[in-house]
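User: Could you check the structure of this?
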Amino acid sequence: MNKHLLLQHYIYSHPSEIGKVVDFDPITDRLFPFDLSAANSELSAEIIEDTARFSNWVSLKLRSSRSRYGIGGYMEHRTIYARSEHFDTEDEPRRLHLGVDIWGDAGTPVYCPIAGHIHSFRDNDHHGDYGPTIILKHNLDGLELFSLYGHLSRKDLEGLQADDSFPMGKQLGAFGTADENGHWPPHVHFQLMFDMEGWWGDYPGVGKFSEKAKWLGNIPDPELILHLQHC
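Assistant: Sure, the predicted structure tokens are below.
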């Protein structure tokens, strides 16, 4: 059985051991599905390149739809990364989003959804990057899994040490402000990986579209944990 199937089997057979990443009530809360691909003609380059305008655009969408969060992005081919040289490479720019973004208010709590330990953490402080990032390591009946939380607040990194344990449901951090989260509208980037491939405190959240098959092999759909998009 491959790792994707093993992960699915673990999640479905251990429902009490899978918790939330953000507070969400499927009865009262709504989600807005963000499309940040080229298909969204409303999202102009002028909006994307101005962090304040981009943040206002996200906030307006959430307010007008009466949504608690915006969500989306897994394996989405996005145009928004042209706003930062961080995603440019000589042969092919990185435009394939590898995790799921949950958009909301700065200060929104982020929780540990599966018991684990701190693998690594770092403030990836570059324009367009993750900003404060925490990566957890989980052992699911012998299956090794890593979860990444990007765009947090800087205070969330204070006092952390590698191998610190985090039980399911413990608050891990909070959505950072645009001044500290890599200059993005407030959100958390949530991503799962089977193999860290030597990365420490960081792992690509955006890849080359031509390498999609490779990324799919190592990065399962975060919706397996989130259970949000079908609420």
